[in-house]
Amino acid sequence: MFRLNPFHKLATLAFGAGLALAPAGADAFTIQSGDLPVYAADVDLGFAKVTAVPTVFAHKSVAGYDVVGVLGGWEGGEVDLAQESLVFEFDAPSIITSLDLGLLFAAGEEDDLWNEVAKVIVYDGSGSTEYTLSVVDGTTAIWSGPGSVANLSPATTGNAAVWSISNPFGTAAITGFTLVGEGPDTPADFRNNDYGFVGVSGRVVPEPGTLVLMGFGLVGLAAAGRKR
Ligand SMILES: [Ca+2]
Ligand SMILES: [Ca+2]
User: Fold this and answer.
1) Is position 179 within any domain?
2) Would residue 151 count as lying in a domain?
3) What are the angstrom distances between the C-alpha of 184 and each of 14, 16, 82, 178?
4) Model confidence pLDDT, tens digit, residues 157-182
């Protein structure tokens, strides 16, 4: 009858633990507005690069929220033109668990004539998909992608109109996303559809090879411990 000796039991346990532990909590990340330096054109965070197109990051502090946009256009501290964008590129394919956007107001609030819309383009390595976050009223918005939207600060005058999208791209392993202005870029429409970045959270997708290596690493540790 097949029987495991104590070392094999330990190695098996270690390997199993490696497989079980690796995906959970490993390589979770958060990027907040404060991580994007004032008036810098880009920043390398070690696991991701963020770039302001075509100028530099510009911050706005509204109702206790720090929001980042792109300098220039009609609104200095917001993404407000089709030519303006904040580009997020991840070093490894990642799953996004939340994306927070701000200064997306309802019609009649602040200087906005209509319910504002934010455009998000997501890249998965083979192509891109475009989604929109559209305000419905002071505390309601519709996200065209997977996931759900919660209001963190009302979309009414004096507040920061912050929305949090949970699991915005579902379980897709993405290589990056772009926050871009929806336009139109005419004076009569200025300030409509301008918005900014508040934060994003996610986790790196573990590669099967990494899991195997982690498992073997633990087996190696167990073996080394046994020899002592
Ligand atoms: Ca701008
Ligand atoms: Ca706005």
Assistant:
1) yes
2) yes
3) 58, 55, 7, 18
4) 999 999 999 999 999 999 999 999 88
